[in-house]
Amino acid sequence: MSSVTATTTTAPDPTDPAPAPARPRLDWRLRFVALSLIWGFSFLLIKVGTQGYAPFQVTLGRLAFGTAVLAVAMAVRREGLPRGARTWGHLAVAGFLLNALPFSLFAFAELTIPSTLAGICNATSPLWGMALSLVALREDRPTRVRVAGLGLGFLGVLTVLGAWQGFEGLDARGTALALIASLSYPVGWIYVRRTLAGSSHSHLSLTGGQLLLATVQLAIVTPLFTSAPSGLAIGPLLAIAALGTLGTGLAVLVQYGIVAEVGPTTGQMVTYFVPVIAAAAGVLLLGETLTWSTPVGAAVVLAGAALTQVKPKRPA
Fold first, then answer.
1. Helix axes 293-308, 274-286, angle to 10 degrees
2. Helix, strand or coil for residue 81?
3. CA pair distance 279, 263, nearest whole angstrom
């Protein structure tokens, strides 16, 4: 899944004392594979969760478990939540755009579309991000390669959706919800970049506050639009617990560890593996079917997304 949270990247202060020697960690390549698998299987877990609980309940559970994981990590590292009303206000917006809204939309979408299609729709986030950044971020200048990637990516989307067949057999509402969820991520990233760049708070602290506020938002909304489940569905509940603990909480910690070690460019490459894993999981474990246009269109989407991430060469 596209990065489910976003915070800022700040350069280290050269005047800071040298950090203590870090404990040996699992090789970043293995963590990269683990992160790809976790986010790839997230769409399957959403589908299973909605088989026993309402979409808002799935999202609330996901956020609650994810927030609990970050709370434990913050306690271990002895980090507190951010301070300042302005910071909390920005985090509330970020939590809505990056967590509460897209998580809920994907859960509603998977009531009517396969998890395979939801995973592929998620891969359009870099395309939306490219289009929005050209308007919202002055430092992002269009190049021929990036514009070509944008066009190629959306051509892939039309291929996945079977545009030449008049979108026959496609649930328009569910697909639209999944695409809007994918659009919500780059909107949130741009908002965070504009409002929280250079924050003195750590990534963990900001993300913990962000998930906490998103959980509060869903805790308010869920009772208003859903009723208590008639019974305790164990399988879906376990899926929600795994979705929150692994796909939201642990995944965030793993992602930031990879980005800190090898840089954001390599860290973002996980986006291109998620739809492949989501499709494989949906077909093998849920029995979902694929037509030839789905994998072909997905490959075109990923190729276009990769081109949109090509940075222009700086003059010497």
1. 160
2. coil
3. 27
Contact 275, 298 (CB under 8 A): yes
CA dist 284 to 100, 214, 258, 281, Å?
29, 33, 29, 5
Query: Using one digit for the tens of pLDDT, what is the confidence trace for 146-163?
Result: 778 778 877 888 787 776
pTM score, two decimals? 0.84
Structure tokens belonging to residue 94: 């970020």
Rounded CA separation 219/221 (Å): 6
Exposed/middle/buried for 151, CB within 10 Å: 0-12, 13-18, 19+?
middle
The tens digit of pLDDT for each residue in 207-257 reads 999 999 999 999 999 999 999 888 889 999 999 999 999 999 999 999 888
Residue burial 216-236, b: 16+ Cβ < 10 Å; e: rest = ebbeeebeeeeeeeeeebeeb
Q: Which two tokens stand for residue 75?
A: 């306690």
The CA-based angle 45-49-55, given to 5 degrees, is 115
**DSSP character string of 251-290:** HHHHHHHHHHHH-HHHHGGGGGTHHHHHHHHHHHHH----
Distances (CA, A) of 257 to 26, 82, 210, 250: 11, 20, 18, 11
Q: What residues have CB less than 8 Å from 124, skipping those under 6 apart?
A: 153, 154, 157, 179, 182, 183, 301, 305
